[in-house]
Amino acid sequence: MNPLRPAILAAAGSSRIKDVITRVPATSAVVQRFVAGETRAELVPVARALLESGRSVSVDFLGEYTTDRVQASAAVAEYFSLIDDLAEAEQSSAGVLTDIPRVEVSLKLSALGQSLGQDGPAIAAENLHKLCAKAVERHVWVTVDAEDHTTTADTLEAVRNARAEFPWLAVALQTYLRQAEDNARDLAADGTRIRLCKGAYQEPDTVAYQRRAEVDASYLRCLEVLLRNAWYPMIASHDPAMISAALALAAENHRAPGDFEFQMLYGIRDAEQRHLVGEGHSLRVYIPYGTQWYGYLMRRLAERPANLGFFLRALTERG
Questions:
Q1: Number of helices and strands in the chain (H, E)
Q2: Which position among 9, 87, 278, 289 has the lowest Cβ density within 10 Å, counted as fewest Cβ atoms?
Q3: Could you confirm whether 195 is annotated as catalytic?
Q4: How far apart are CA 312 and CA 305, in angstroms?
Q5: What is the CATH number of domain 36-292?
C-alpha cells in the first residue's frame, strides 16, 4: 500500500491544499488523465470511444457532501440528462443490444441528499427511485457507489429497499472494511449485483484493515464468495494478482465471460483493459466527470505510487 496514503487522503479534505493544487496550471494535465472533463459535452465523446473499442462504461457525475435539497435536485437533473446521453451514445456506437447494458451510471447517495439531516435517507431514497425508473426506460444500469464507513449501513439499506422494484440495482463493496465478507455473503444470497473494490477512503483501524496484505486477503475471500454465489459479480481491480485469481475462480465455477465483468478506472491500465476485451472478457470502464474532481483525484493518487509520480512530474514540468 502507498506509504503516503494517509497524508494524501488527509489532503483530500483540506480546502487550503485544494486551493493551492487547483491553481497550478499543470494540474489540468493530471486531471485529464483520470477525469473525462467537467461537462457532459466533454464526457460523451470519451464514453462513445470506449464503447466503440468493445468496452462498457459506468459514468460518475462527481458530487458528494450535498448540503441542501437544491443541490440534490440538481444532481438528479444532471443524471437524468446523463442517462439520455449515454443511451444515445450506445446506440450510435454500433454495439449490439444485450441483456447486460453496456452503459451504466454510478452515483453516491450523499450526492442525492443522504446526509441532509434526519430526512436525508428518505430524500436520497426518493431520488434513487427516480433515477432507477429513468434508467429502466433507457436500458441503462445503476450502481450505488461506496463512501466512507459511516454511510455503509444506510447505503445497503437503501439499495435493499430499492431492489424490491429494481432487482438489477448494484452496490459497491470495499474489501478494506472488516465487515466486507459478511456483507458480501448477505448481498450475494439476496441476488444483488455487486461491484467489488478495495476501497479509497481513510478509515480507522477499528473498522478497516490497514495493511495491504490484509486488504488483499479480504478481497480474495469476497471474490470467492461472489464468484461462487452472486448473480453478476463486477470485479473492480487493476491488481494483476486479483485479476488472475478471478479468472481461476470463474473457471472453477463454470462462469462464462458474460456471467461476470471486470472493471477498471478511466486512465489506468488501458493496455490491460484492451487485452482483457481481446480475450473475450467483459470489461467496464469507470469514468468520472464534473467540476468536483479534487477529492476523486486525491483518492486515485493515494491508491498507487505510480499515480502520485505522474502527478508530481506534471507539477515539476509546469515551466
A1: 13, 8
A2: 278
A3: yes
A4: 10
A5: 3.20.20.220
Any bridge partners for residue 56, and if so which?
284
Q: 3-state class of 58 per DSSP?
A: strand
Which H or E element spans position 196?
Answer: strand 193-197
Which pTM does this prediction carry? 0.86
Helices (H), 117-262: 120-137, 152-162, 180-189, 212-229, 240-252
Element (H, E) at 234: strand 233-236
Report residue 186 as a C-alpha cell. 448477505
How large is the angle between the packed helices 212-229 and 180-189, nearest 10 degrees? 10
304 is catalytic: no
Q: Which three cell numbers stand for residue 309?
A: 509520480
Catalytic choice (5, 55, 60, 145)? 145
- To 5 degrees, how large is the angle CA 174–CA 179–CA 184? 65
- pLDDT tens readout for residues 51-74: 999 999 999 998 766 888 999 999
Selected catalytic residue, list 5, 195, 284, 299: 195
> Does residue 290 contact residue 61 with C-beta atoms inside 8 Å?
yes
- pLDDT, tens digit (0-9, with 9 covering 90-100), for 224-280: 999 999 899 999 999 999 999 999 999 999 999 889 999 999 988 999 999 999 999
Please give the C-alpha separations between residue 139 and each of 56, 65, 90, 91, 98, in angstroms, as whole numbers.
Answer: 13, 28, 10, 11, 10
Angle at 79 between CA 75 and CA 85, to 5 degrees: 145
